[in-house]
Amino acid sequence: MSHHRPIRPQDRHGFDAIIDARTPAEFAEDHIPGAINCPVLSDDERALVGTIYVQQSAFEARRVGGALVAANLARHLAGPLADKPANWRPLIYCWRGGMRSGSMVQWLRLVGWDAQQLAGGYKAFRRHVIERIAALTPQLDLRVIVGATGSAKTRVLHALAEQGAQVLDLEGLARHKGSLLGALPGVEQPSQKHFETQLATRLEGFELARPVYVEGESARIGRLSVPVPLVQRLRAAACIELDAPPDERLAYLLRDYAYLGDDPAALCQRLAQLAELHGKATVQRWQGWAQMGELAALFDELMRLHYDPHYGRSQQRNFARWDARQRLAAPDLTPAGIAALAQDVLRLEQAEQG
């Protein structure tokens, strides 16, 4: 059985499984991609042991905690781990590589498995994520897809991915469309930590010699912050602008945001945030349309009065190479038109290489 050098986050791919021994709440906030949660203490049990530690003694906390850990480990051995073969090699981690993962490693080794503990636990993995984002981001050959609201930028990214291009879909990772009305119905955004973990995982999968297509995002997507190194890289990258006519953009928005009509009250609430910018009377008119399901009138005015007037100025401010951008006509934002547009984007790449 190997008891060798400390296992670091970058060694994790050499194991048959990664087991997160922390509580379900800790796991839900963030975890190593692909890990399964086999808590040695539940959320309530961990709180109980902490209280005993503070109010009674460290010994009493260990005695009570030890009994709970043993019961939970027995459950995991009889349940999710029951079918594992003799040569199975799991990597176990807890918050900082302490007693929770240590006790699980000991039990699994007693069974006969070559279980190893992640040195430094989740905290070491978290440092690894931040380091990877900082190290890989400056090496990316980013191409930023920009365009006025309703230019189908996200769908063009998806079409690029389908055609074999490398794509970083930040809105997909953030589970939010990035605009004032961008919250997805019934979909919770991930924690900031989990967003960054997913981002680091994507970056590690890229071939740095090939371009990576990304949407021109602001520094925040919903309540999540795009890491500073990536914001800086976005700001300095080459831009490709999708130039779609207003009527085509409006038709696309009506398809893409049709679900906003399902909850007029929530839509009115979000529109209320624009009162300071556009005045009460205008926002009340918009809220009236929202209540009546008149999305075409609402989106048309939002485009003309709210989004479009600031578009050029904000892009110029945000992207150092805005004036040198390449522009692509986007006359058709149907699925077929979007697929053709993605081909046009890739042709720009081929023309550069040619």
Kindly summarize this structure in a few lines.
This protein has 354 residues and is of the alpha/beta class. It has helices spanning 24-29, 43-55, 58-78, 99-111, 121-136, 153-162, 170-174, 192-205, 228-236, 246-256, 264-271, 275-278, 280-292, 295-318, 335-353, and strands spanning 17-20, 36-37, 90-93, 116-117, 141-146, 166-168, 211-215, 220-221, 224-225, 238-243, 326-329. Helix 10 crosses helix 14, helix 11 (264-271) runs antiparallel to helix 13 and helix 13 crosses helix 14 (295-318).
Question: Explain this structure to me?
Answer:
Helix 5 packs across helix 8, helix 10 crosses helix 14 (295-318) and helix 13 crosses helix 14. The strands form three sheets. Strands 6-7-5-10-11 form a five-stranded parallel beta sheet, sandwiched between helices. The protein is an alpha/beta fold and 354 residues long. The mean pLDDT is 95. It has 15 helices and eleven strands.
Average pLDDT reading: 95
DSSP strand content: 5-15%
Instruction: Fill in the CATH topology of the largest domain.
Output: Rossmann fold
Q: Largest sheet, described in full? A: 5 strands, parallel
Distance between the termini: 56 Å
Give the helix level as a range of percent.
40-55%
Structural class: alpha/beta
Measured on Cα atoms, how large is the radius of gyration?
25 Å
- The CATH architecture assignment of the largest domain turns out to be 3-Layer(aba) Sandwich
Instruction: Sketch the topology as an H/E string, one letter per element.
Output: EHEHHEHEHEHEHHEEEHEHHHHHEH
Number of strands: 11
Please mark out the parts with pLDDT under 50 across 5 or more consecutive residues, or reply none: none
Q: Would you state the CATH class of the largest domain?
A: Alpha Beta
Integer count of domains: 2
